[in-house]
TrEMBL record:
One GO-annotated biological process of the protein: P450-containing electron transport chain
Pfam families for this protein: Fer2
Originating organism: Alteraurantiacibacter buctensis
Name under which the protein is recorded: 2Fe-2S iron-sulfur cluster binding domain-containing protein
Family stated for the protein in its record: Belongs to the adrenodoxin/putidaredoxin family.
Length: 105
């Protein structure tokens, strides 16, 4: 499915993500800036913090305990904050828009 990342400056990048991979992996594979993923997807660094389009937020499984705990410490957390490494890409996410925080470039 196509997923669009928009950075804090408004620059949009659409990527072809594959079902079963994480949103973070899809971003890294397509050189999306602002998703450093320092911990490699272990839910430990929060450098994959994104804001999920509210339309799609309800389509995602709720964050697990580890993700929720980490999200409490991220800079500029919002109700639609998620960690991209904890989101599994599925066909349902086709057309989803996620934004990266201004603190991540
Ligand atoms: Fe580190 Fe997601 S890649 S928490």
């Amino acid at each position: 499915p196509t997923i669009t990342f928009i950075d804090a400056q408004g620059a949009a990048r659409s990527v072809q993500a594959e079902c079963g991979q994480s949103l973070m992996t899809a971003a890294r594979a397509n050189d999306v800036p602002g998703i450093d993923a320092d911990c490699g997807g272990m839910c430990a660094c929060a450098t994959c913090h994104v804001y999920v389009d509210t339309e799609f937020l309800s389509q995602l499984p709720a964050p697990g305990d580890g993700e929720e705990a980490l999200l409490e410490f991220v800079d500029k957390a919002q109700p639609n904050s998620r960690l991209a490494c904890q989101i599994c890409v599925t066909e349902v996410l086709k057309g989803m828009i996620v934004r990266t925080p201004s603190s991540q470039r």
